[in-house]
Amino acid sequence: MPRCRASIADFVPHPRYGTTPVRSGFKIPESELRRSYWRLSSDVLFPETALPADTSKQNYAVFPRACYVDVARTCRSCTRRFIFFAREQRYWFETLRFFVDADCVQCPECRRTAHALKRRLRRYADLRAKASLTDAELHRLVDDARYLLEHGTLKNAATVGAIKNLALKRIPRYRGVPALIAALGATRR
Ligand SMILES: [Zn+2]
To answer: Which end of the chain is more exposed for a tag (fewer CB within 10 A), N or C?
Structure first.
């Protein structure tokens, strides 16, 4: 049976719960936890963090989650270890009503980056769709193009080159312009 021997110092910090398992005050035996939901049979878990679940609030097909418990995960993006906290699970499955078999596959930092990328990409697309841009909007477009390039999300260098040329003509003093030129240069190497 897998045991929770993880060294807790190396978990990616969660903005609300930190880097260590959160004690719940409930005493649910480990064997009961492992039987309570199929995925827990082989997870690295921290029994002292277990919380009983309200399965009537869950969205499930056959098997609900009878308990929530802090479990160790490895981030699919950066391969660092993080904790998927029992309290987070309760929020996911009872408040947001995510399907109970959903799993958390990214650490808090990679999730934050993914959200930021999505937000930036949406704003970038909205700005690109506009017939004309104010200087402030052009600043944002330059910043978004640079950010998305640096994160490997924009592949079309010709489009970004056109944004750079427009920026050089209209807002040559904006400090985001040299940063965009550097990011473009890096993608061409
Ligand atoms: Zn990560």
So the answer is: C
In this structure, are 129 and 90 located in the same domain? no
Residues of the chain scoring pLDDT < 70: 1-9, 189
- 95 C-alpha vs ligand 1 centroid, how far in Å? 24
- pTM (2 decimals)? 0.76
| 130: containing domain | 110-188
**149 and 65 housed in the same domain:** no
Whole-number Å distance, alpha carbon 165 to ligand 1 midpoint, is: 35
DSSP per position, 43-108: S-B-GGG-EE--GGG-B-SS---SEE--EEEE-TTT--EEEE-HHHHHIIIIIS--BTT----S-H
pLDDT on residue 10: 84
